[in-house]
């Protein structure tokens, strides 16, 4: 069993092997996903929506994510474990260092932050202090109130150009992974080609270096609604292990996402 690391993720991008990622929040699912050879597990602040039943991610605390990170770490042997920094836990560099330390001590191998240029100093500082960082651009759910809803981002040319620039700046500041959420497939392709680091898409077409889904969406058990970019893999298989295997196989072969799951 070879552990997935930042270096192996980078090599997967170089070799053209797609990265398969899922969110996870507890040890049992983490173990099952890990046994099926998932590459990356994210303790997403989506836990506010899928575990707590809230209508946004804003109510999630660092202690919530730290607790679930410890659960996932206890279940995962091979997968690379990334934990989300919740809303307002990285609003200044000093706060970010302190809060990121809690997630790393709980078992994360990397922390994820939502946003562009305003985060450059924070990212640089975290990396200098030995905290690997994943960026998150496009539809960043912590900004739902600024966007006026969960809307596709980067459709206008100026916004698309700005997003590409932000991605390049984040890479220069030191991120080693980028999540790109709900942007047109053509923009996601451009970003993935422009960066050396792997880009993991969700609602971002099939040309990113990997895919991630919220596990509850992939199993069709989300309490509220199923996003257009997601797919219920359990309905086709009727068995959780088979559904996860099907998801991983479809990501690896680029059969998922299909055009009905992405935005123009
Ligand atoms: O919180 C989360 O689960 C995420 C994924 C949707 C990428 O950020």
Describe the structure.
The chain has 264 residues and is of the alpha/beta class. Helix content is 42%, strand content 14%. It contains twelve helices and eight strands. An eight-stranded parallel barrel has the order 1-2-3-4-5-6-7-8, surrounded by eight helices. The model has no long low-confidence stretch (mean pLDDT 97). Bound molecules: 3-methyl-2-oxobutanoic acid. Residues 23, 42, 44-46, 84, 179, 181, 202, 212, 214 line the site of 3-methyl-2-oxobutanoic acid.
Shape: globular
Helical run tally: 12
Determine the mean pLDDT.
Answer: 97
Give the N-terminus to C-terminus distance in angstroms.
40 Å
Strand order of the largest sheet: 1-2-3-4-5-6-7-8
In total, the number of strands is 8
Largest beta-sheet characterization: 8 strands, parallel, barrel
Structural class: alpha/beta
Relative helix content: 40-55%
Which molecules are bound besides the chains?
A: 3-methyl-2-oxobutanoic acid
Low-confidence stretches: none
What share of the residues does DSSP label as strand, in percent?
A: 5-15%
Based on CA atoms alone, the radius of gyration comes out at 17 Å
From N to C, what is the helix and strand string?
A: HEHEHHEHEHEHHEHEEHHH
């Amino acid at each position: 069993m070879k552990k997935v690391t930042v270096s192996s993720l980078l090599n997967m991008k170089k070799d053209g092997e797609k990265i398969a990622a899922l969110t996870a929040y507890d040890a049992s699912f983490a173990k099952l996903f890990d046994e099926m050879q998932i590459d990356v597990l994210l303790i997403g602040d989506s836990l506010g929506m899928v575990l707590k039943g809230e209508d946004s991610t804003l109510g999630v605390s660092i202690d919530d994510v730290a607790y679930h990170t410890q659960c996932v770490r206890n279940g995962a042997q091979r997968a690379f474990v990334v934990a989300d920094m919740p809303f307002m836990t990285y609003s200044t560099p000093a706060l970010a260092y302190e809060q990121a330390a809690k997630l790393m001590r709980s078992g994360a191998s990397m922390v994820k932050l939502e946003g562009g240029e305003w985060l450059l100093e924070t990212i640089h500082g975290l990396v200098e202090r030995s905290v690997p960082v994943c960026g998150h651009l496009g539809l960043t759910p912590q900004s739902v109130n600024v966007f006026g809803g969960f809307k596709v981002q980067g459709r206008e040319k100026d916004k698309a150009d700005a997003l590409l620039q932000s991605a390049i700046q984040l890479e220069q500041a030191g991120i080693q992974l980028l999540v790109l959420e709900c942007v047109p497939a053509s923009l996601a392709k451009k970003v993935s080609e422009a960066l050396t680091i792997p880009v993991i898409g969700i609602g971002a077409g099939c040309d990113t270096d990997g895919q991630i889904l919220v596990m509850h969406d992939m199993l069709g058990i989300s309490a509220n609604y199923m996003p257009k970019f997601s797919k219920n893999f359990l309905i086709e298989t009727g068995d959780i292990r088979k559904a996860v295997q099907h998801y991983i196989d479809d990501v690896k072969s680029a059969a998922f996402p299909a055009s009905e799951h992405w935005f123009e």
